[in-house]
Write a structure and sequence with these properties.
Blueprint (H helix, E strand, L loop, with lengths): L8 E6 H14 L4 E2 L1 E2 L1 H6 L2 H11 L3 E4 L2 H10 L4 E4 L8 H7 L1 E5 L2 H14 L6 E3 L14 H10 L6 E3 L11 H14 L7 E2 L3 H6 L7 E2 L22 E13 L4 E2 L5 E2 L4 E6 L21 E4 L2 E4 L9 E4 L13 E5 L5 H8 L3 H6 L5 E6 L8
Parallel strand pairs: 1-19, 2-10, 3-4, 4-5, 5-6, 6-7, 7-8, 8-9
Antiparallel strand pairs: 1-11, 11-14, 11-18, 12-13, 14-17, 15-16
Length: 376
């Protein structure tokens, strides 16, 4: 592939595929509002462009992690409804109010600070309440539900939504899912008439019992695998190409890369590709003679990574391409439609989420599928 911009790698984000994924999930979640999770720079795709594409597709509710991310979405989308998953940062109430951000409140301290600001301004500023049903991350304890209900009743305050988060939704038959569903339903009995949200991408795909009034897909929007052991139905959104720097001859018995971790068992042709762990191509994708590593798609064929991945370079075995060798400057697919990012993640012993959110390397970013976006 010829790289279309820059002299290094190229990250291509298909905003049309992103929009199609949101619409597909919205069909599955009929009867519930379909939000969009755009935290971590929209899973590495660029928060402003991704949020704008999702809004054009029909999304109106967005979830970010931090208030800074919320401000970025607000700048791009003046009319969006934005929830901040990390909650209310101490002393930051005025920022949330100015930017019309809704904190996902998860502790009595957060609640008291938010209610105090509402009393001070004589206005019931919107928020969501998060209850912990089994993650032991953020969230009110279940035994605080009555206390929270009684506290807001004294001020006639009601949250926009009550939510929790599934720990094991990527394994649909996991008993933890049913336990959390039951616990969350018991919490909701304390807040009659308040909308509820439990399902992430995997929860959305698991069943309608988990949908409630709003679903919050994240990884599935960006084409990643949400459910273990099932075919991933989502369209590919992110493709990363990196340039070939050199193709070289190597002989049987010679070693490849740092630590001489890989010894060649045949005369070989090796492509040195300009991407390394500094660009998010993780060192865990390295190989040795006992363990295969990651792969790249080169001139129509999957080619294995040989040896340890360096900071700036990765070596790929292109011997089996025969005369169809890449030339210096040509791009090879690191992941995309032919090299599934989740397959790469499996080899690295991690998840597609981490691979996507590590995309902060030295490459240009190219957006396609932008034709339906509003003119700037």
């Amino acid at each position: 592939m010829k790289l279309t911009s820059g002299l290094g790698g190229q990250l291509t984000v298909d905003l049309g595929a992103l929009a199609r994924n949101w619409r597909a999930l919205d069909k599955v979640s009929q009867g519930a509002l379909t939000a969009a999770v755009v935290k971590a720079d929209a899973y590495g795709t660029g928060i402003e462009m991704a949020a704008t594409a999702l809004y054009a597709a029909g999304a109106r509710f967005f979830f970010v992690a931090t208030p800074d991310e919320g401000v970025a979405v607000r700048t791009a989308l003046p009319n969006a409804h934005i929830f901040v998953l990390d909650g209310l940062y101490p002393g930051a109430s005025n920022l949330y109010i100015r930017q019309n951000l809704m904190p996902v409140i998860s502790s009595m301290e957060m609640l008291e600070e938010w209610l105090a600001k509402c009393v001070e301004r004589n206005e019931a500023y919107p928020s969501a309440f998060h209850f912990d049903t089994g993650m032991n991350r953020l969230g009110f304890r279940l035994n605080e539900a009555v206390v929270v209900r009684e506290r807001i009743a004294r001020l006639s305050y009601a949250p926009q939504m009550v939510m929790s988060h599934l720990a094991c939704a990527d394994v649909p038959n996991h008993e933890k899912n049913r336990t959390q569903l039951a616990l969350f339903s018991s919490v909701m009995n304390q807040f009659p008439g308040i909308p509820a949200s439990l399902a992430n991408s995997a929860g959305l795909m698991t069943g309608r019992d988990y949908h409630f009034q709003m679903v919050r897909p994240g990884i599935a929007l960006y084409g990643g695998r949400a459910v273990v052991g099932r075919r991933n139905p989502m369209a590919n959104v992110v493709t990363l190409h990196a340039p070939v720097l050199q193709v070289r001859e190597a002989r049987t018995g010679e070693t490849v890369g740092y630590g001489a971790a890989y010894s060649l068992s045949r005369d070989s042709r090796l492509a040195v590709v300009g991407i390394g762990y500094a660009d998010g191509f993780q060192r865990a994708l390295s190989s040795n003679n006992a363990r295969p590593g990651g792969k790249m798609f080169v001139n129509g064929r999957l080619c294995p990574v040989l040896g340890k991945i360096s900071m700036d370079m990765t070596i790929v075995d292109v011997t089996d391409l025969g005369p169809n060798l890449p030339r210096p400057g040509e791009g090879v697919e690191v992941f995309g439609p032919n090299v599934n990012i989740d397959d790469q993640a499996d080899v690295a012993g991690t998840i597609g989420y981490e691979m996507l959110t590590s995309l902060k390397g030295r490459y240009s970013r190219n957006y396609v599928g932008t034709g339906y976006l509003p003119e700037q």
